[in-house]
Write a structure and sequence with these properties.
With 418 residues, this protein is of the alpha/beta class. 39% of the residues lie in helices and 15% in strands. The protein is globular. The structure holds 4'-deoxy-4'-aminopyridoxal-5'-phosphate.
């Protein structure tokens, strides 16, 4: 095990996980099922305020957005645009820089299809890191195929940290147009030094696209401070509804992008030969918007900031430190991902046992974890494994659940390796 730079700093704000947990109906009587839910990196449970906001949006102010003259429509539109302002504030950007999308995957596909396909030329390079989720890799492969650009990779080391010298080397070559990078790895928990990489990319003339799916729910994020061009995250991983996410794009970048989907709500004028389009962000929101889901997301962002992102960050790093210590003594257990700066999760393999079998035994012990490649097959290749066990944490995760994880993994080891 690496030294734990994840340990809670003494001056970190405190967080009462048990009290917060009581705000989650799925984790409280009568719904809770005695399961340690350790899969929050995949998706989070929802606090009551988010469910209530969703219900209000569907019951009290539900109508067509930006399409009606009636009062309910106007109210629904105002609520949707209010959610856009809330999302902008969450990231430190402006409302007209926020595009509502279905999630991180759609956000990155949007940038790749619109900015990517119109700005990449044959021989250009798209720099990704060795720890990307497939959704921050495959869209770039598609854009590269369409433009004869190519993907280059800044690898990760044995801890799961990005090789910054490789980033510099690639940028020095002068062909990198896009740097696509995760803020926090969903497979390893590595916190990537995004601000540093953006500062390297900017003078090299490369646009930066940050996958914030794992970072936005747990780290303070300020896009101006990070210095990125695009930042994406998903509502459902941030205690919010499914089917809604955010793409923040720097105003200058969005302005130089054509639509990527056509339809209602994004046009100025249409005739049979051609159409003209609205300005960003509406230019990128073809079709009926997910209004109540945006409102639910805004409630989730209010809730996160009510708890405090510094407190959430400290709580989750402390959980990672505790889980790392608890599991470290188990014979044959190898951590996959020991970055000095990490959060959110622990990922591991056990000698002589398949991750899926471990997952099944953990499930029988009422410990819910994710097993598999975590949509990050290149990461698995890098560490010479096909799958890992990943226990990932949220605001509501307790020390008792980490203990339950430790006991269940010990039991799995006894059952599977004799
Ligand atoms: N990037 C990362 C780092 C993720 O963890 C995930 C979800 N596992 C995604 C992107 C994709 O997010 P979504 O499925 O919500 O679009």
């Amino acid at each position: 095990m690496s030294e734990i730079a994840t340990a809670r700093p003494p001056d970190a704000p405190a967080l009462d996980a048990a009290a917060l947990r009581a705000q989650f109906p799925a984790l409280s009587p009568p719904h809770e099922r005695g399961v340690a839910f350790l899969d929050s990196a995949a998706t989070t449970q929802k606090p009551r305020v988010v469910l209530a906001a969703l219900e209000r949006a569907y019951v009290e102010t539900y109508g067509a957005i930006a399409r009606g003259v009636y009062r309910l429509s106007a109210e629904a539109t105002a609520a949707y645009e209010g959610a856009r302002e809330r999302a902008a504030r969450f990231l430190g950007g402006a409302a007209d820089e926020v595009v509502f999308v279905r999630g991180t995957t759609e956000a990155i596909n949007l940038v790749a299809a619109s900015w990517g396909r119109t700005h990449l030329a044959p021989g250009d390079e798209i720099l990704v890191t060795g720890l990307e989720h497939h959704s921050n890799l495959v869209p770039w492969q598609l854009a590269a195929q369409a433009t004869d650009a190519r993907i280059v990779v800044a690898p990760i080391d044995d801890r799961g940290e990005v090789d910054l010298e490789a980033v510099e080397r690639h940028l020095a070559g002068g062909r990198v147009r896009i740097v696509a990078l995760a803020h926090v790895s969903n497979a390893l928990g590595t916190i990537v030094p995004v601000e540093k990489i953006c500062a390297l990319a900017r003078p090299a003339g490369a646009v930066t696209v940050v996958d914030g799916a794992q970072a936005a729910p747990r780290l303070p994020v300020d896009v101006r401070q990070l210095g990125c061009d695009f930042y994406a995250f998903s509502g459902h991983k941030a205690y919010g509804p499914n089917g809604i996410g955010v793409l923040w794009g720097h105003r200058d970048r969005l302005a130089e992008m054509p639509p990527w989907q056509g339809g209602g709500g994004m046009i100025r004028e249409v005739n049979f030969d051609r159409s003209t389009f609205l300005d960003p962000p509406q230019r990128f929101e073809a079709g009926t918007p997910a209004g109540p889901e945006a409102v639910g997301l805004a409630a989730a962002l209010d809730w996160i900031d009510g708890v405090g992102r510094a407190a959430i960050d400290a709580h989750e790093r402390a959980l990672v430190a505790h889980a790392s210590e608890r599991l470290a003594g188990i014979p044959g257990l190898r951590f996959i991902g020991t970055a000095r700066q990490r959060t959110a999760l622990v990922s591991f393999v056990l000698a002589g046992a398949h991750a899926h079998d471990i997952g099944t035994i953990l499930d029988a012990a009422s410990v819910a974890v994710r097993v598999g490649h975590h949509c990050a097959q290149p990461v698995m290749d890098r560490f010479g494994v096909t799958a890992t066990v990943r226990a990932s944490f949220g605001v509501y995760t307790t020390e008792a659940e980490i203990e339950a994880l430790g006991r269940a993994v010990e039991r799995a080891r006894r059952m599977l390796t004799g």
